[in-house]
Amino acid sequence: MCDEDFSLITDSQGSQNTLDGILNAISKCKVQHNQLLKEQQDLSRARDDQEDLAKQFRQRVVKLRISLEEDDNNQARDVDSERKKMAALHDEESRLKREIQRAEEELQLEEESTHHLKQQTDVSTAAVPEKKVVFTGVTGDGANTLNFDVKPHIVYPMEEGTALITFEDEEVAQKILSLREHKVDLGGDCAITLEAKLVQLLVPCQVELDTEVCSRRILVSKLPKVGDDRLLDKLEIHFSKSKNGGGEVEESDMLHDSGNVVITFTENNIAKGLADKQYHDVEFEKGRKNSVKVTPFLNGEITSFQTRLSACGRTVLLTGIPAVMEQENLQDLLEIHFQKTSNGGGEVDAFLYNPLGQHTLALFEEDCPTEDQSQ
User: Are 110 and 346 contacting, i.e. CB atoms less than 8 angstroms apart?
Assistant: First the structure.
């Protein structure tokens, strides 16, 4: 651009054309400007819309990422939970295996216990039947008072100045008891007054036994009638031989109440084998054998013993007897008095007088009826 002056030469007609052209150009420019503004606004709105979409997309991406993370966490928790469940199942399986093993061991112990119990008696509790007892005139000493027998065998300590009288008929005894006081004439002007009292004894009513098979003893029954010494010798000889299934015999005892024999061995394994075989042929006479029965021997311990009072039906206790004469004479006079029906008495089975200053033990046994009473 230069600083020299210049002049503008215009043509009126040309100027007019040029002005219109400029105006047209300005109009066009305005239109283009307006279009540009509109396009700018459209672009701005489009940009805003894109930004909104981008923001929404970012938000969705964030939510999706959070959701995926939560899903991963949940899946991890589920996997961890499943692992814990599997571990718990393994623990439970191990526990059940231990329980099964323990149950099998307990079952084996039960089977062993059952096998042991089969060798014992089937009945460990025996109800003792009620039996009547009576004084039969027999006395005893205190040495055997602690012996226990299922059969009634009762030791009765008599007080001084008393007597026991047993009648053949129970009705006579009840009549004597009902009269209660009895005046006995001893001859001359001498007479004594006695009191009749009921005799009540403690007898066993129930006995509980804890029994166990003895490992060294056998019970031999079904024996022939041979002398005791010979019987025991022959049994010891037979059962001491190993060819007969026996062994060294420690001792043999005769049970006189039952007629059976108890043999004790020095070893524990002999008795069972003999009892399992049960029947054995023993030579008691030369060339002659008898079949005897061998069964297990039971050791028993009383775990419960119950008693009850039992009244003696045929026996009466007489009290208040003074020592006015010799024992035999007074006993005879008392027995004669109570034999007379005029005095309310009857036939006497047994009579025992215990005078003052003496200690006597009377034995009460089972009251077995005579043939007349049983008919």
Answer: no
C-alpha torsion angle, residues 246, 247, 253, 254 (rounded to 10)? 20
CB 262 within 8 A of CB 216: no
Q: Which two tokens stand for residue 210?
A: 């804890």
CA separation for the pair 222, 235 (Å, rounded): 13
pLDDT for the residue numbered 369: 55
Rounded Cα gap, residues 144 and 178, in angstroms: 35
Long-range CB contacts (< 8 A, 24+ apart) of 232-239? 232/261, 234/282, 234/283, 234/284, 235/261, 235/263, 235/282, 235/292, 236/263, 238/280, 238/282, 238/283, 239/263, 239/265, 239/274, 239/280
Token pair for 296: 């297990």
CA dihedral 80, 83, 87, 88 (to 10 degrees): 70
Give the length of the chain. 375
Residues of the chain with pLDDT under 70: 1-17, 115-152, 368-375
Which spans in 148-201 are helix H?
170-179
Tell me, what DSSP letter sits at residue 239?
H
d(CA 170, CA 192): 25
Q: Which pLDDT value is given to residue 322?
A: 92
Handedness of CA 51, 52, 55, 56 (dihedral sign): negative
Q: Provide the pLDDT for residue 204.
A: 80
